[in-house]
């Protein structure tokens, strides 16, 4: 029932995508500037101050080794063979994202995740942890109190936990120690990179930029646009701000159908058309016929021409005697809804969609995840 509702909801959303594509969008939402990017940071640390919910040191030797190394750096040397039985310490991995143009002294958020068998990080404090980049250089230092979100509820003889206790965040928990050099401003050009390849959208962006700054933009390929920018850094920032604020109408992407084989969810980015075909799968049979629809101008119209279009008419039958006739012009969303209503399972949908694609009836890209 839940999968059926999901399919119906997604198909309704698919019918709304077509009008949305006609709206103008900012270049800032469609493309990014080459060289302006974030960087991932990672580090290994210890969380202390837990209320008996830390790692079981007998099963996590790396936690004990980390504690001994930390105490040694602080001038405390433990006798050889000391057996530490600590329940208020947990070994964690600390991750963060270093934004573009971040400068030393700025604060960034960090995520703290247990890597041992700790039951909870709630109430713990992360000790000073260096965060390194892919080049193994330290770019930030993290420390602070771990906040574990969510809530728990307990009743007589039972408990319900609706949050995850082995991961938490520290808002502003890391201080940037080193800046990442940015390539912006080193050449006379800046490059805009589209989020997805589309030659039509590239052309429209080039035309929009050249309408304000004639001759400054040129297309490199279906994803990159080269723009000549001022040399002065202040003028270049203002120039990029104006470019990002320009609005264009992006071209429609190719029709695509995405099927999640684990949950049975089906998503479409726009109305997907069907060609004539006949499919038999188990106790289901699907017949798709295309009938011509003729549209012509009125008898006294001075302009216009006769247009012949194809509209799909779908018939779905099952061995139980169920029969569904979809209205002329039905798209894939209506077919999926009808199959679900007649009792088709997730595997049935996958097999039918694959058969439609193989037969050339499905006019869209089929992606199964």
From TrEMBL:
Organism: Nitrosomonas marina
Gene: flgI
One annotated GO molecular function: structural molecule activity
Leader peptide range in chain numbering: 1-24
InterPro entries, A to Z: Flag_FlgI
Top-rank taxon: Bacteria
Alphabetic keyword roster: Bacterial flagellum, Cell projection, Cilium, Flagellum, Signal
GO terms (BP aspect): bacterial-type flagellum-dependent cell motility
Alphabetized Pfam families for the sequence: FlgI
Family, as annotated: Belongs to the FlgI family.
Assembly mode: The basal body constitutes a major portion of the flagellar organelle and consists of four rings (L,P,S, and M) mounted on a central rod.
Protein known as: Flagellar P-ring protein
Major localization class: other
